[in-house]
Amino acid sequence: MARSPDSETNRLDDAARAGWLYYIGGNTQDEVAAKLGVSRQTAQRLVSLAVSAKLIKVRLDHPIAHCLDLSARLTERYGLRFCEVVPADPASPSTLLGVAEAAAAELERQLSSQHPIIVAMGTGRTLKAAVSHLPPMDCPQHKIVSLVGNIAPDGSASFYDIIMRIADTVRAPHYPMPIPVIASTVEEKELFLAQKPVRNVIELARQANVAMVGIGQLGEGAPLLQDGFVTADEMRGLLKAGAVGEIVGWAYDAAGAFIHGLTNDRVASIRPDQSMERLVIAVAMGEAKRAALAAALRGRLINGLITNEAMAELLLRR
Fold first, then answer.
1. Most buried in the list 37, 48, 197, 268, measured by CB within 10 Å?
2. What global pTM score does this model have?
3. In order of start, what are the domains of the chain with their CATH numbers?
4. Radius of gyration of the chain (CA)
């Protein structure tokens, strides 16, 4: 028999109360059971439901010595201004676990400033996951601006565009870039970039105090290829030219130097400035991104990093 809406609501209410008592109140499961008047098994199920239904979000505040050591070594090797390394679960198949939460925490910290700032955002799966962990905030003093177009190849809104999601969560003015990630031709790109609203967004993005970006690997599993922004032939051309990764659509080689020509001629997003003074934080983990992330660090395309200990160890072996 299907649950009634009232029954489902009551169940979630009980789960939320159990989760609060356990995670916030510091009660044991036996104490939760006693306070709710249920069995220990029921209390355990309610606490589990509170987590699985995302009624409770757990954040680890205790620094782990190994992660701190990895962070310090990465900072020294690559001259980073910011680096956070989170624990890794070797048994988990997730390519986002821990890193998305850490990115949300850093974004929350930046937005907690009373002094007005401009936050520039890239796009992608990891950043989208991070936004889902961002708590509601009231930030009318800040501006959220996109570094990349929000139009997919078929003309639809990009599934991984996150500017509006952030703005809805933190109630801040937001500035999307209403153009494709990669234009069909160089002439089309120039036409898009000549539009006054687009020029205004670009100028605002260049004034950003902090930027948060994803790192894309190249090859068969590349996000640019999977999401239809480049063709298989174009991807092969990038690989032949030595490209190993991309940031907001801009492809670069193993030294972190941007590829000349090819799809880079048509990328309409704002290219990372290798001499920029602002904080540019890459959020990435996973073996597939190893070469791309190492190259971005080597070429100083980023000066901040959020990753996990497994990726940190791989980067330090190079």
1. 268
2. 0.80
3. 5-52 (1.10.10), 65-317 (3.40.50.1360)
4. 22
